[in-house]
User: What shape does this take?
Amino acid sequence: MKLEIFRTLWGYTATKAQALEELLEAGFDGMEARLPMTASERAEFAAFLRANHVSYISTVFSAYDVLPEQSATVDEHLLDLDKKLAWAAELSPRFVNLLAGNDRWPLAQQVDFFGRAMDVARKHGQVCAFETHRARSLFNPWVTLELIRQLPDLRFTSDISHWVVTCERLLNDPQDDLSAFVERVHHIQARVGYDQGPQVPHPAAPEYTQALAFHQQHWEAIWRSQENRGYQVSTLTPEFGADGYLHHLPFTNVPVADLWSLNVWMANTEREHFRRFSGASTR
Assistant: This one.
């Protein structure tokens, strides 16, 4: 199995051409970015991806952005998803990373939504990985594990930093058995969270050694599971981001670290981590 590392365009404000130049220089293998919402933007992006032979992971939100419309029903989420998966097909993504549902729904509604969402994905011939994310249905590991019990065909994007802050602890207690989830992870978003937030100021800082180690143990468990499932390629996106995630100094609004440098550090670190993992797994 090999590791392919994708660059997130979350918070990026320069051109896609510049983003491509930077990611190639840093040794990345492709882009993960939001699905454009207008036909002209999709056509332009699709042409860019084809012309430059860029591998693309499409990020899609159901009803309607990162934070869902609170009044939107299960049916409205599914209609929105149906429309957006058709749009995503225009860009021929590797797969769709989907932030779906609403954390306020009772379990019966969650089960109904995800069962029907998988049907919508099959209708469009899209591989969909449902991302663990606060404010969405998969905000909590225990809800997610119950969904797996009832819908074992679900596949996931693991951004476990969200669960760390939701549960206010590293999920490394012997009672925190996430194996049923790990066995269904399709894609990793590599951001290091801690008990009071979804993003440490810098993952190399010694005060976050334990947090980094926990996340790496989780990612390694996913790699091991993917190897056992016959994966030839594992995908990972370093996803340190802006939007309140990146720490700033009080009164000055100066960021404590450069966002691109954080993601390059994470990419280099996980590339080396994967080399060590691959070496150990072949011995």
About this structure: The CA atoms of residues 66 and 99 lie 7 Å apart.
